[in-house]
Amino acid sequence: MPMRTKDSSVRGIAFFISPHGYGHSARASAVMEALHSISPSIRVEIFTTVPEWFFQESLSRDFGYHSLLTDIGLVQTTPLVEDLPATVERLNEFLPFQSSELRRIARTINELGCKLIVCDISPLGIAVAKEAGIPSVLVENFTWDWIYQGYAQEEPRLREFIPYLKEQFDRADYRIQTEPVCQPRAGNLTTPPVSRKPRSALADVRKKLKIPASAKMVLINLGGLALQWEFLTELKSQRDDIYFVLSGYAPMKQTLREDNVILLPPHSDFYHPDLVQASDAVIAKLGYSTLAEVYTAGVPYGYIKREKFPETEVLTNFITAQMKGIAIEKEGLQDGRWLSQLRDLLSLPRVPREVSTSGAEQVARFIWSLLENQNH
Protein backbone atom coordinates (compact mmCIF):
# COMPACT_ATOMS: atom_id res chain seq x y z
CA MET A 1 0.00 0.00 0.00
CA PRO A 2 1.45 3.42 -0.92
CA MET A 3 2.59 5.56 1.96
CA ARG A 4 0.32 8.52 2.65
CA THR A 5 1.87 11.75 3.79
CA LYS A 6 0.75 13.52 6.94
CA ASP A 7 -2.44 15.56 6.51
CA SER A 8 -3.17 17.89 9.41
CA SER A 9 -6.87 18.00 8.49
CA VAL A 10 -7.28 14.24 9.06
CA ARG A 11 -7.34 12.74 12.53
CA GLY A 12 -5.48 9.46 12.28
CA ILE A 13 -5.66 6.59 14.74
CA ALA A 14 -3.51 3.47 14.52
CA PHE A 15 -5.00 0.18 15.70
CA PHE A 16 -2.55 -2.55 16.72
CA ILE A 17 -4.58 -5.76 16.91
CA SER A 18 -3.67 -9.21 18.21
CA PRO A 19 -3.98 -11.90 15.51
CA HIS A 20 -5.03 -14.50 18.10
CA GLY A 21 -8.25 -15.56 16.38
CA TYR A 22 -10.63 -12.97 14.96
CA GLY A 23 -12.15 -11.88 18.27
CA HIS A 24 -9.80 -8.98 18.87
CA SER A 25 -10.31 -7.76 15.31
CA ALA A 26 -14.08 -7.96 15.75
CA ARG A 27 -13.92 -5.90 18.94
CA ALA A 28 -11.57 -3.35 17.37
CA SER A 29 -13.77 -3.14 14.27
CA ALA A 30 -16.78 -2.33 16.45
CA VAL A 31 -14.84 0.53 18.01
CA MET A 32 -13.67 1.80 14.59
CA GLU A 33 -17.24 1.85 13.28
CA ALA A 34 -18.40 3.73 16.37
CA LEU A 35 -15.59 6.26 15.89
CA HIS A 36 -16.64 6.83 12.29
CA SER A 37 -20.18 7.47 13.51
CA ILE A 38 -18.83 10.22 15.74
CA SER A 39 -16.55 11.70 13.08
CA PRO A 40 -16.50 10.34 9.51
CA SER A 41 -13.24 12.20 8.90
CA ILE A 42 -11.27 9.93 11.25
CA ARG A 43 -8.72 7.84 9.39
CA VAL A 44 -7.82 4.44 10.87
CA GLU A 45 -4.59 2.62 10.11
CA ILE A 46 -4.71 -1.08 11.00
CA PHE A 47 -1.57 -2.98 11.98
CA THR A 48 -2.01 -6.75 12.26
CA THR A 49 -1.63 -10.05 10.41
CA VAL A 50 -5.37 -10.74 10.53
CA PRO A 51 -6.41 -10.87 6.85
CA GLU A 52 -7.47 -7.58 5.30
CA TRP A 53 -10.76 -9.10 4.11
CA PHE A 54 -11.99 -9.32 7.69
CA PHE A 55 -11.88 -5.54 8.02
CA GLN A 56 -13.30 -5.02 4.55
CA GLU A 57 -16.32 -7.03 5.70
CA SER A 58 -16.55 -5.30 9.09
CA LEU A 59 -15.91 -1.65 8.24
CA SER A 60 -18.07 0.67 6.16
CA ARG A 61 -15.37 3.29 5.54
CA ASP A 62 -11.91 3.37 4.02
CA PHE A 63 -8.93 2.32 6.13
CA GLY A 64 -5.22 1.73 5.84
CA TYR A 65 -3.96 -1.83 6.24
CA HIS A 66 -0.40 -2.73 7.23
CA SER A 67 0.58 -6.39 7.58
CA LEU A 68 2.61 -6.56 10.78
CA LEU A 69 3.01 -9.21 13.46
CA THR A 70 1.86 -7.33 16.55
CA ASP A 71 1.40 -10.19 19.00
CA ILE A 72 1.89 -13.94 19.48
CA GLY A 73 -0.86 -14.88 21.88
CA LEU A 74 -1.16 -18.66 21.80
CA VAL A 75 -0.22 -21.02 19.00
CA GLN A 76 -3.09 -23.44 18.46
CA THR A 77 -3.28 -26.79 16.68
CA THR A 78 -7.08 -26.53 16.52
CA PRO A 79 -9.53 -23.83 17.66
CA LEU A 80 -9.82 -25.71 20.98
CA VAL A 81 -6.27 -27.01 21.53
CA GLU A 82 -3.18 -24.93 22.36
CA ASP A 83 0.43 -25.76 21.48
CA LEU A 84 2.39 -24.37 24.42
CA PRO A 85 5.93 -25.42 23.32
CA ALA A 86 5.35 -23.76 19.93
CA THR A 87 4.06 -20.68 21.73
CA VAL A 88 7.31 -20.45 23.70
CA GLU A 89 9.33 -20.74 20.49
CA ARG A 90 7.35 -17.93 18.85
CA LEU A 91 7.64 -15.73 21.92
CA ASN A 92 11.40 -16.18 21.96
CA GLU A 93 11.51 -14.87 18.39
CA PHE A 94 9.13 -11.96 19.12
CA LEU A 95 10.39 -10.69 22.49
CA PRO A 96 11.97 -8.50 23.66
CA PHE A 97 11.15 -5.73 21.21
CA GLN A 98 14.12 -4.45 19.23
CA SER A 99 14.79 -0.71 19.42
CA SER A 100 15.52 -0.48 15.70
CA GLU A 101 12.18 -2.11 14.87
CA LEU A 102 10.30 0.19 17.24
CA ARG A 103 11.93 3.22 15.61
CA ARG A 104 11.04 1.97 12.14
CA ILE A 105 7.37 1.43 12.97
CA ALA A 106 7.19 4.70 14.92
CA ARG A 107 8.43 6.58 11.84
CA THR A 108 5.61 5.01 9.83
CA ILE A 109 3.08 6.01 12.49
CA ASN A 110 4.30 9.61 12.47
CA GLU A 111 4.38 9.78 8.67
CA LEU A 112 0.78 8.60 8.59
CA GLY A 113 -0.19 11.42 10.94
CA CYS A 114 -1.59 9.16 13.65
CA LYS A 115 -2.42 11.02 16.87
CA LEU A 116 -2.70 7.95 19.10
CA ILE A 117 -2.49 4.16 19.06
CA VAL A 118 -5.29 1.85 20.19
CA CYS A 119 -4.06 -1.62 21.18
CA ASP A 120 -6.39 -4.59 21.41
CA ILE A 121 -4.01 -6.50 23.66
CA SER A 122 -1.04 -5.95 21.35
CA PRO A 123 1.92 -5.04 23.59
CA LEU A 124 3.89 -3.93 20.52
CA GLY A 125 1.51 -1.03 19.92
CA ILE A 126 2.15 0.35 23.39
CA ALA A 127 5.92 0.25 22.88
CA VAL A 128 5.60 1.89 19.45
CA ALA A 129 3.44 4.68 20.89
CA LYS A 130 6.16 5.50 23.43
CA GLU A 131 8.73 5.65 20.65
CA ALA A 132 6.44 7.79 18.46
CA GLY A 133 5.66 10.19 21.29
CA ILE A 134 1.88 9.73 21.15
CA PRO A 135 -0.63 8.29 23.66
CA SER A 136 -1.59 4.62 23.75
CA VAL A 137 -4.97 3.18 24.69
CA LEU A 138 -5.13 -0.45 25.81
CA VAL A 139 -8.48 -2.17 25.21
CA GLU A 140 -8.71 -5.55 26.95
CA ASN A 141 -10.67 -8.04 28.93
CA PHE A 142 -7.42 -9.92 29.63
CA THR A 143 -3.72 -9.44 28.96
CA TRP A 144 -1.22 -12.11 27.95
CA ASP A 145 0.77 -12.02 31.19
CA TRP A 146 -2.42 -13.11 32.99
CA ILE A 147 -3.14 -15.83 30.41
CA TYR A 148 0.42 -17.22 30.53
CA GLN A 149 0.28 -17.37 34.31
CA GLY A 150 -2.63 -19.78 33.95
CA TYR A 151 -0.49 -22.10 31.80
CA ALA A 152 2.77 -21.71 33.74
CA GLN A 153 2.43 -24.95 35.69
CA GLU A 154 1.95 -26.95 32.48
CA GLU A 155 4.64 -25.03 30.56
CA PRO A 156 7.05 -23.39 33.07
CA ARG A 157 9.02 -21.62 30.31
CA LEU A 158 6.11 -19.22 29.88
CA ARG A 159 6.99 -17.65 33.24
CA GLU A 160 10.03 -15.88 31.78
CA PHE A 161 7.80 -13.74 29.53
CA ILE A 162 5.28 -12.68 32.19
CA PRO A 163 7.25 -9.82 33.87
CA TYR A 164 8.23 -8.26 30.53
CA LEU A 165 4.71 -8.37 29.12
CA LYS A 166 3.17 -7.05 32.34
CA GLU A 167 5.59 -4.13 32.21
CA GLN A 168 4.62 -3.40 28.59
CA PHE A 169 0.89 -3.48 29.30
CA ASP A 170 1.33 -1.29 32.40
CA ARG A 171 3.02 1.36 30.22
CA ALA A 172 -0.25 2.10 28.39
CA ASP A 173 -1.34 5.68 28.93
CA TYR A 174 -5.00 4.68 29.15
CA ARG A 175 -6.65 1.36 29.98
CA ILE A 176 -10.17 0.36 28.95
CA GLN A 177 -11.62 -2.94 30.15
CA THR A 178 -14.57 -4.56 28.38
CA GLU A 179 -16.82 -7.00 30.19
CA PRO A 180 -16.50 -9.87 30.92
CA VAL A 181 -13.25 -8.71 32.57
CA CYS A 182 -10.82 -11.42 33.65
CA GLN A 183 -8.57 -9.35 35.91
CA PRO A 184 -10.19 -6.09 37.05
CA ARG A 185 -7.63 -3.31 37.16
CA ALA A 186 -7.67 0.37 37.99
CA GLY A 187 -8.21 2.09 34.67
CA ASN A 188 -10.06 4.80 32.82
CA LEU A 189 -13.21 2.99 31.69
CA THR A 190 -15.09 -0.30 32.03
CA THR A 191 -17.77 -1.04 29.45
CA PRO A 192 -20.38 -3.69 28.64
CA PRO A 193 -19.37 -6.30 26.04
CA VAL A 194 -18.12 -4.72 22.80
CA SER A 195 -19.55 -6.20 19.60
CA ARG A 196 -20.14 -5.32 15.98
CA LYS A 197 -23.66 -4.11 15.18
CA PRO A 198 -26.02 -6.04 12.91
CA ARG A 199 -26.77 -4.33 9.60
CA SER A 200 -29.84 -6.15 8.34
CA ALA A 201 -33.26 -6.79 9.83
CA LEU A 202 -33.87 -10.24 11.24
CA ALA A 203 -36.70 -10.94 8.79
CA ASP A 204 -34.56 -9.91 5.81
CA VAL A 205 -31.75 -12.30 6.78
CA ARG A 206 -34.13 -15.23 7.17
CA LYS A 207 -35.83 -14.42 3.88
CA LYS A 208 -32.47 -14.38 2.10
CA LEU A 209 -31.65 -17.76 3.66
CA LYS A 210 -35.10 -19.03 2.61
CA ILE A 211 -35.98 -19.98 6.16
CA PRO A 212 -39.71 -19.76 6.98
CA ALA A 213 -40.62 -17.13 9.53
CA SER A 214 -42.31 -19.80 11.67
CA ALA A 215 -39.22 -22.07 11.76
CA LYS A 216 -36.39 -22.14 14.27
CA MET A 217 -32.91 -21.15 13.07
CA VAL A 218 -29.77 -22.51 14.76
CA LEU A 219 -26.44 -20.93 13.82
CA ILE A 220 -23.40 -23.21 14.21
CA ASN A 221 -19.92 -21.71 14.10
CA LEU A 222 -17.14 -23.88 15.49
CA GLY A 223 -14.13 -21.95 14.23
CA GLY A 224 -13.11 -24.37 11.49
CA LEU A 225 -13.57 -27.61 13.42
CA ALA A 226 -14.10 -30.46 10.97
CA LEU A 227 -17.56 -31.99 10.98
CA GLN A 228 -18.27 -35.56 9.98
CA TRP A 229 -20.91 -36.18 7.36
CA GLU A 230 -22.75 -38.38 9.88
CA PHE A 231 -23.17 -35.26 11.98
CA LEU A 232 -24.77 -33.41 9.08
CA THR A 233 -27.04 -36.37 8.43
CA GLU A 234 -28.25 -36.19 12.00
CA LEU A 235 -29.06 -32.51 11.53
CA LYS A 236 -31.23 -33.40 8.55
CA SER A 237 -33.10 -35.94 10.67
CA GLN A 238 -34.23 -33.26 13.14
CA ARG A 239 -37.72 -31.79 12.94
CA ASP A 240 -38.33 -30.04 9.62
CA ASP A 241 -39.18 -26.79 11.44
CA ILE A 242 -35.55 -26.39 12.60
CA TYR A 243 -33.00 -25.02 10.14
CA PHE A 244 -29.27 -25.28 10.77
CA VAL A 245 -26.92 -22.67 9.32
CA LEU A 246 -23.24 -23.67 9.47
CA SER A 247 -20.96 -20.70 8.99
CA GLY A 248 -17.63 -21.28 7.26
CA TYR A 249 -18.03 -24.90 6.14
CA ALA A 250 -18.95 -24.69 2.46
CA PRO A 251 -16.31 -24.44 -0.30
CA MET A 252 -15.07 -20.95 -1.02
CA LYS A 253 -17.80 -18.66 -2.43
CA GLN A 254 -20.41 -21.43 -2.50
CA THR A 255 -23.53 -21.79 -0.41
CA LEU A 256 -24.70 -25.39 -0.15
CA ARG A 257 -28.21 -26.36 0.88
CA GLU A 258 -29.84 -29.71 1.48
CA ASP A 259 -33.20 -29.86 3.18
CA ASN A 260 -32.90 -27.97 6.47
CA VAL A 261 -29.08 -27.67 6.48
CA ILE A 262 -27.36 -24.61 4.97
CA LEU A 263 -23.57 -24.49 4.64
CA LEU A 264 -22.05 -21.04 4.19
CA PRO A 265 -18.51 -20.38 2.91
CA PRO A 266 -15.94 -18.47 4.99
CA HIS A 267 -16.60 -15.32 2.93
CA SER A 268 -20.35 -15.46 2.53
CA ASP A 269 -22.80 -12.72 1.68
CA PHE A 270 -24.02 -12.80 5.28
CA TYR A 271 -22.51 -10.57 7.95
CA HIS A 272 -21.91 -12.65 11.08
CA PRO A 273 -23.69 -10.28 13.53
CA ASP A 274 -26.73 -10.42 11.19
CA LEU A 275 -26.73 -14.23 11.38
CA VAL A 276 -26.49 -14.14 15.17
CA GLN A 277 -29.39 -11.70 15.45
CA ALA A 278 -31.55 -13.78 13.08
CA SER A 279 -30.99 -17.00 15.06
CA ASP A 280 -33.06 -18.64 17.76
CA ALA A 281 -29.87 -20.17 19.19
CA VAL A 282 -26.13 -20.04 18.50
CA ILE A 283 -23.76 -22.98 18.96
CA ALA A 284 -20.11 -21.94 18.95
CA LYS A 285 -16.77 -22.11 20.67
CA LEU A 286 -16.72 -20.02 23.83
CA GLY A 287 -14.85 -16.84 22.94
CA TYR A 288 -15.12 -13.13 23.53
CA SER A 289 -16.43 -11.86 20.19
CA THR A 290 -19.08 -14.56 19.82
CA LEU A 291 -20.17 -14.06 23.41
CA ALA A 292 -20.39 -10.30 22.85
CA GLU A 293 -22.48 -10.67 19.68
CA VAL A 294 -24.77 -13.27 21.28
CA TYR A 295 -25.10 -11.07 24.38
CA THR A 296 -26.10 -8.07 22.27
CA ALA A 297 -28.65 -10.12 20.30
CA GLY A 298 -29.94 -11.74 23.49
CA VAL A 299 -30.20 -15.22 21.93
CA PRO A 300 -29.46 -18.50 23.76
CA TYR A 301 -25.85 -19.66 23.53
CA GLY A 302 -24.76 -23.29 23.26
CA TYR A 303 -21.10 -22.85 24.09
CA ILE A 304 -18.15 -25.22 23.80
CA LYS A 305 -15.50 -24.57 26.42
CA ARG A 306 -11.75 -24.45 26.03
CA GLU A 307 -11.18 -26.11 29.38
CA LYS A 308 -7.56 -25.03 29.84
CA PHE A 309 -7.94 -21.44 28.65
CA PRO A 310 -7.95 -19.17 31.74
CA GLU A 311 -10.64 -16.89 30.24
CA THR A 312 -13.15 -19.77 30.11
CA GLU A 313 -14.31 -19.58 33.73
CA VAL A 314 -14.87 -15.82 33.54
CA LEU A 315 -16.89 -16.07 30.32
CA THR A 316 -18.93 -18.99 31.68
CA ASN A 317 -19.79 -17.09 34.87
CA PHE A 318 -20.87 -14.10 32.78
CA ILE A 319 -23.20 -16.28 30.68
CA THR A 320 -24.72 -17.76 33.85
CA ALA A 321 -25.32 -14.31 35.35
CA GLN A 322 -26.40 -12.25 32.35
CA MET A 323 -27.28 -14.53 29.43
CA LYS A 324 -29.14 -17.72 28.59
CA GLY A 325 -27.00 -20.66 27.61
CA ILE A 326 -26.07 -24.32 27.92
CA ALA A 327 -22.56 -25.79 27.99
CA ILE A 328 -21.97 -28.37 25.25
CA GLU A 329 -19.20 -30.90 25.74
CA LYS A 330 -16.71 -30.85 22.87
CA GLU A 331 -16.48 -34.65 23.01
CA GLY A 332 -20.09 -34.79 21.86
CA LEU A 333 -19.69 -32.55 18.83
CA GLN A 334 -18.60 -35.03 16.19
CA ASP A 335 -21.08 -37.79 17.00
CA GLY A 336 -24.01 -35.43 17.48
CA ARG A 337 -24.67 -36.21 21.14
CA TRP A 338 -25.18 -32.49 21.71
CA LEU A 339 -28.45 -32.76 19.77
CA SER A 340 -30.01 -34.19 22.93
CA GLN A 341 -29.57 -30.70 24.41
CA LEU A 342 -31.07 -28.86 21.45
CA ARG A 343 -34.65 -28.84 22.71
CA ASP A 344 -33.55 -27.35 26.04
CA LEU A 345 -31.43 -24.73 24.27
CA LEU A 346 -34.25 -23.64 21.97
CA SER A 347 -36.66 -23.44 24.89
CA LEU A 348 -34.57 -20.70 26.51
CA PRO A 349 -35.99 -17.20 26.01
CA ARG A 350 -34.23 -14.27 24.38
CA VAL A 351 -32.86 -11.71 26.82
CA PRO A 352 -34.04 -8.23 25.81
CA ARG A 353 -31.33 -5.60 26.02
CA GLU A 354 -32.12 -2.04 27.03
CA VAL A 355 -31.50 0.54 24.33
CA SER A 356 -28.52 2.45 25.67
CA THR A 357 -25.01 3.38 24.73
CA SER A 358 -23.20 0.24 23.58
CA GLY A 359 -19.79 -0.82 24.80
CA ALA A 360 -18.26 0.09 21.42
CA GLU A 361 -19.80 3.57 21.58
CA GLN A 362 -18.46 4.10 25.09
CA VAL A 363 -14.94 3.16 24.00
CA ALA A 364 -15.21 5.37 20.89
CA ARG A 365 -16.40 8.37 22.87
CA PHE A 366 -13.49 8.01 25.27
CA ILE A 367 -11.00 7.82 22.38
CA TRP A 368 -12.68 10.78 20.67
CA SER A 369 -12.32 12.84 23.86
CA LEU A 370 -8.58 12.17 23.81
CA LEU A 371 -8.35 13.45 20.23
CA GLU A 372 -10.40 16.50 21.12
CA ASN A 373 -8.17 17.30 24.09
CA GLN A 374 -5.09 17.16 21.84
CA ASN A 375 -6.54 20.10 19.91
CA HIS A 376 -7.00 22.31 22.97
Describe this structure in words.
This protein has 376 residues and is α/β, with parallel strands linked by helices. The protein has two domains: 12-196 and 358-374, Rossmann fold (3-Layer(aba) Sandwich), CATH 3.40.50.2000; 202-347, Rossmann fold, CATH 3.40.50.2000. It has 14 helices and 16 strands. The chain has helices spanning 23-38, 52-58, 84-94, 99-111, 123-132, 144-151, 162-170, 202-209, 229-236, 272-278, 288-297, 311-322, 342-347, 359-374, and strands spanning 12-17, 43-48, 64-67, 76-78, 81-82, 114-120, 136-140, 174-178, 189-191, 216-221, 242-247, 256-258, 261-264, 281-285, 301-304, 325-327. Strands 3-2-1-6-7-8-9 form a seven-stranded parallel β-sheet, with helices on both faces. It has a seven-stranded mixed β-sheet with strand order 12-13-11-10-14-15-16. Strands 4-5 form a two-stranded antiparallel sheet. β1, α1 (23-38) and β2 (43-48) form a beta-alpha-beta unit. α1 packs across α14 (359-374), α6 (144-151) runs antiparallel to α7 and α8 (202-209) crosses α10 (272-278). The longest helix has 16 residues, at 23-38. Mean pLDDT is 91; it is low at 1-8.
Question: How do you describe this structure in short?
Answer:
This protein has 376 residues and is an alpha/beta fold.
What portion of residues is helical?
25-40%
Major beta sheet, specifics? Answer: 7 strands, parallel
What's the pLDDT, averaged over the residues?
A: 91
* Fraction of residues in β-strands: 15-25%
Poorly predicted sequence stretches spanning 5 or more consecutive residues: 1-8
- Enumerate the strands of the largest sheet in spatial order, edge to edge or round the barrel: 3-2-1-6-7-8-9
Radius of gyration: 21 Å
Quickly give the CATH architecture of the largest domain: 3-Layer(aba) Sandwich
> What is the chain-wise order of helices and strands?
EHEHEEEHHEHEHHEEHEHEEEHEHEHEHH
CATH topology of the largest domain: Rossmann fold
Structural class, please? Answer: alpha/beta
Strand element count: 16
Number of helices: 14
- Terminus-to-terminus distance: 33 Å
CATH homolog superfamily of the largest domain = Glycogen Phosphorylase B
- Described by the principal axes of the CA atoms, the overall outline is globular
Tell me the domain tally. Answer: 2
